[in-house]
Design brief:
This protein has 14 helices and 13 strands. With about 375 residues, the protein is of the alpha/beta class.
């Protein structure tokens, strides 16, 4: 048996939409399907404005331009995240300032943020790990007290909520991913959520190569021109058509992923009670989306041995992030504040179990049984 970590689910509408996009003779960005996606997010997620991008990384690049991050500015973020979070700051000349994560949710520890704030701090960059929301009320209060922006890396947060609000729509701006590894995919792709109306027009301009072409397409001006910095952040209609098919089938995908997540949790709970491993924690304030089911082991040796054991049985169960604060680029471009005990521990002891829509019950059974056999 060979069980991959991830396999994207296709609902058979993707190719139909792509063919339809082709027949409309508009394959560049902001055509029929891009607009359909924008409308979907604004209606379903309650976003002030949604703008599709070529990737979540691109959306975060727009976010840091909107935040006016410049040389010498600092942005506080967790070290336990993907490089794109920090890159978006570094590309503007800013400095990522890393702090530790919470022991339970693996999200940024909101109690450590104020210690890291200096006169150079411009924003707080939160990361909703595994689709579990950060403690946003506390973080927003800190930001308001120190006049900082709140940027949301909700790459893993599709259809997940904090106190009823969709992740990515709570801070000033947010970004989400549709990479192949995410619950909803377009291969590569992302979306920018502009949650404050005052940023909406500039976000459009930055996304359209620094021009006001979007206003021209809407008939608001008779010609467009270069008015601000920007780049080509628009996905093609082919990508948008694919994504729209995924969005319209997203309820079924999320429902199945949550079933698998809960099945893992229920069946591995007794191993947690025996102190062999630790399972994910989801606070009552959050509604996660079944994006990642991870287990935490006692030490790196046990983690590596379990990974090797599972691989030998045809099960791909990878670890996750190497801490940014200790990476070569992290040491070069950023700095960290305080101890990073939780970040270091989690990075060396976490395993992600296979979780995707088409994972069969027999495969779930085999994965669980294999973990049980390892501890026996």
């Amino acid at each position: 048996m060979k069980i991959p970590y991830n396999r994207p689910h296709l609902n058979n509408k993707e190719l139909k939409n792509i063919s339809d996009a082709h027949s409309r003779w508009w394959l560049a960005g902001d055509g029929y399907y891009t607009k359909k996606c924008h409308e979907w997010f604004e209606k379903k997620f309650g976003a002030n404005k949604a703008l599709l991008t070529t990737s979540c990384s691109a959306a975060m690049d727009i976010m840091t331009i909107l935040a006016n991050i410049e040389k010498g500015d600092e942005v506080i973020m967790p070290s336990f995240t993907f490089s794109s979070t920090a890159n978006s700051v570094v590309l503007r000349g800013g400095t990522p300032v890393f702090v530790d994560i919470r022991h339970d949710t693996l999200n940024i520890d909101e109690n450590l943020i104020e210690e890291a704030i200096t006169s150079k701090t411009k924003a707080i960059f939160v990361v909703h790990y595994a689709g579990v929301g950060c403690e946003m009320d506390t973080i927003k209060r800190i930001a308001k007290r120190h006049k900082l922006l709140v940027l949301e890396d909700a790459a893993q947060g599709f259809s997940a909520r904090y106190k009823g609000k969709q992740l990515g729509t709570i801070g000033d701006v947010g970004a989400m991913s549709f990479h192949e590894t995410k619950n909803i995919t377009s291969g590569e792709g992302g979306v920018l959520f502009v949650n404050k109306a005052k940023y909406a027009e500039r976000a459009e301009i930055i996304r359209e190569k620094g021009t006001n072409r979007s206003k021209f397409y809407r008939g608001e001006i008779d010609k467009y021109t270069w008015v601000d910095m920007g780049s080509s952040f628009l996905p093609s209609e082919i990508i948008s058509a694919f994504l729209y098919a995924q969005l319209t089938g997203s309820k079924k995908i999320i429902r199945k992923r949550l079933y698998i997540w809960k099945d893992y949790q229920k069946r591995l709970m007794y191993l947690e009670k025996k102190a062999y491993l630790r399972l994910p924690v989801t606070p009552v304030t959050t509604e996660h989306n079944g994006h990642i089911f991870y287990i935490l082991l006692d030490d790196q040796k046990t983690r590596n041995e379990l990974m090797t054991y599972l691989k030998g049985r045809g099960i791909l169960a990878p670890f996750h992030y190497i801490p940014l604060h200790s990476s070569p680029a992290g040491r070069k471009f950023g700095r960290y504040v305080g101890r990073m005990d939780n970040t270091n521990k989690v990075s060396s002891t976490l395993i992600r179990l296979p979780l995707f829509y088409d994972l069969k019950q027999s495969e779930i059974d085999f994965i669980v049984k294999s973990i049980e056999n390892f501890f026996k």
